[in-house]
Here is the input.
Amino acid sequence: MRDGNEAAAGAALLSWYDAQARVMPWRVGPADRAAGVRPDPYHVWLSEVMLQQTTVAAVRDYFRRFTARWPGVADLAAAEDGAVMAEWAGLGYYARARNLLKCARAVAAAGGRFPETAEGLRALPGIGPYTAAAVAAIAFDEPAVVVDGNVERVVARLWAVETPMPAAKPALIDRAGRLTPRRRPGDHAQAMMDLGATICTPRNPACALCPVSDFCAAKAQGIAAELPRKTPKPEKPTRFGLAYVAFAPDGGVLLERRPDKGLLGGMLGFPGSDWAETAPAPCPPLAADWTPLSHEVRHTFTHFHLRLRVFVAQTEGEGFTPKSEFSPAALPTVMRKVWDLAEAGALPRRGDAPAPRDI
Ligand code: SF4
Here is the structure.
């Protein structure tokens, strides 16, 4: 895009958004907004936290369930930690759920109203620059510069920025700022999100349908799909671990809550080893006749692949969770895979792999 064209490109984007805005349970569409309907800051904040690292399709049901159970920020603030973690199960990146609760409690303690500026929102626990800017723009129409991966991609293409990420970030934030209008900044932020999610997609940008194609330098140069360029990432390492699933004769299961700090912090799981770079030594949580399953669980986290060897035993003892109180849906995804494998008695399932003999 040539300097000086920002206002025209922004206007074209908003006209497109007026006609094509996606309907979402947390969104106030452009027509309602123009008629004076304001978004609920609680809904905007909750959806933005849920949408970090997660798709809109995956978030819809979680958002509906959360807002049905906790209709306002004070309701969420008063919720039990375990109940919130259980509702969050399956959405991943569990530190978000713990921070969500901390933030809700901070807002409730301060009178139940969210700060109306990005700067004020930034002071709340768990709110980073992106979420602060998004909530300030969408809920309060502050002309904050909202830059996530979608926006970075659109801006890199509009200006044909060839510097690889993440070094290009400051330049992209600067250009996104030039594109942000003082009028309707909330609609502009959502229009950029929609454009990045539906038209200016990572692999096959639909430039023929794009409302800002006349301004787009990458399209003009025929390099749209190549941008933004990326510095190659190092390969993810693999870690190994053991998980123990103990069944009581009455169907009870031995569970433990993981420590608050660290990966899957505060979530329910099965006892087991640390996840290490080499195969860990056996560490059963109680004496029993443990049977190793013939298949292992594989799961990929942000920074590493995990291979979990699963052991099962029928036994009795203290601290079992009764069958009536156990719901696999309350487990994080990796632990649900462990449960599925243990319950199936090691029958091979898609995505599980035979365990090598030496683990
Ligand atoms: Fe993205 Fe193509 Fe639109 Fe440029 S013209 S912003 S590359 S969809």
Q: What stands out?
A: Confidence is low (pLDDT under 50) at residues 346-352.
